[in-house]
Amino acid sequence: MADDKDVLRxxxxxxxxxxxxxxxxxxxxxxxxxxxxxxPRVSYLTLVTDKVKKHFLRVMKAEDxxxxxxxxxxxxxxxxxxxxxxxxxxxxxxxxxxxxxxHFKNFPEHDLLHCxxxxxxxxxxxxxxxxxDALKHKGQVxxxxxxxxxxxLWMGLQNDKFDQFWAMNRKLMEYPTDEGGFRYIPFRxxxxxxxxxxxxxxxxxxxxxxxxxxxxxxxxxxFPAAICAEEHSCDLxxxxxxxxxxxxTAGRNSDQAQRVEYGASIGxxxxxxxxxxxxxx
Length: 281
Known about the structure:
The chain is of the alpha+beta class. The chain contains nine helices and ten strands. The chain has a domain of 89 residues: Ubiquitin-like (UB roll) (Roll), CATH 3.10.20. Strands 2-1-5-3-4 form a five-stranded mixed beta sheet. Strands 7-6-10-9-8 form a five-stranded antiparallel beta sheet, covered by helices on one side. Keywords: Autophagy, Isopeptide bond, Membrane, Ubl conjugation.
């Protein structure tokens, strides 16, 4: 995968046009105009919305301008989910631009984590990388990197620098064929319905009999009742880029997520009994 540079570049530069509007509940000194922004799918909302915050703070009273948070149609948006995952989970069937509501008060403590600075996002990002590498390489690759290499990964994401990021991420995506490949495939199945926000379990890339396993095999293991036989009606949709959203959802694999989210593949599975988003490294 690390050699598919054109695909990786297309995934990286995928964008979602968004319109940010201030919540009517906020107290302002004058009318707040909406703010339009192209959001990178592989980044985080709180990492790329400084301009949004500055725009709305111009009309806010100082005493009311506390921590900024976002919601879409009544659902608070989790900043620690990549933007592409948030959009695909909550708004992939809506017209563009994506209409996001901005809040500065009444922070939903039970729904969102606080994000007071970019260092919080960085800590989350690096935790995801380490988790993924532990699954793929027993943590050997990330542990062999120097602190400056870790910083380069983060700065590449923060500054939207593809080459800077992938110069380091390439090492984390190396597939050790002499060792039988990755130990496990890091993935998460995000859900909009269900008791848990996502499903995550150990999944090897090769069966005990030596057969290479596919995305279909993973889905059958996760949802054996939902992934039906060929003779039955079953809707399995690999989410394709919508006009204006850039080219992602056939992908996401950063080794940020290698917990799953960015340059590899994203699929959307829709059946009568589930509505989930799968992200795989």
